[in-house]
Amino acid sequence: MARPGYFHGDLRRALLDAGLTAARAGGPEAVSLRELAREIGVAPSAVYRHFDSLDRLLSALSLRALSMVADAMEDEIARVPADDASPAGTVAWAEGAIGAVGLGYVRWAWAEPGLFRLAFRVHRDLDAAHHEDARGACGRTPYEQLERALDALERVGELSPAGRPGAEALAWSAVHGFASLTVDGPLRSLDGATRERLAWRIVEMVRLGLAAAAPDRP
Q: Containing domain of residue 27, as a range?
């Protein structure tokens, strides 16, 4: 029998909540439709009415995880000192914002390694970049947080119009690579202080690299 309080109207939410708990503990490999059904107390057939495959469930879970990344970025951005007269129109704020989105990303990966592995498990291309379910309480997806910071850099002249196209891919690749290496790769053995110091250097490297003139190549 289903647990009290789990009616058919909120079974989908219950599955997502339980799936996130499982992924938090063991990554996407720990998520099982049958195991979630058993935990919640419903028949497997009830689960399949909401998610007809494990990939569909993982896709929905990854969007939830992405929304958490976006809010972690927002928390870091909120710490950037703002000019009351023009909070998003100063060089200092723009430079702080691009650092904040990178630090928010890697710090969330360290705090939630299981969910970090989940966040990019299913989605291909950029189909989740602007997906409604990947928007956190901040109203943005992680990709939109990065766009916001890059737009600010361009607005204050720290990123040239010629260097703007493709800047998301460059910044994301550098920061995600570092996060992955420190979560699952050989850099996971770094102590916390060294890891944090290198994170600061990575985001500064990204900012300085983007500020450089775009190479005149195809």
A: 1-52
Q: Note the pLDDT tens digit of each residue in 80-126.
A: 987 665 655 689 999 999 999 999 999 999 999 999 999 987 666 78
Task: Work out the number of other CB atoms within 10 angstroms of the CB of residue 8.
Answer: 11
Strands (DSSP E) contained in 30-160 are none
Query: How many Cβ atoms from other residues are within 10 Å of residue 177's Cβ?
Result: 13
pTM: 0.89
Q: Which of 114, 32, 37, 99 is nearest to 68 (CA)?
A: 114
Cβ proximity of 76 and 107 under 8 Å: yes
Reading the block at residue 126, the tokens are: 């950029």
Supply the CATH number for residue 11's domain. 1.10.10
DSSP class of 189: G
Cα gap 61→82, rounded to integer Å: 34
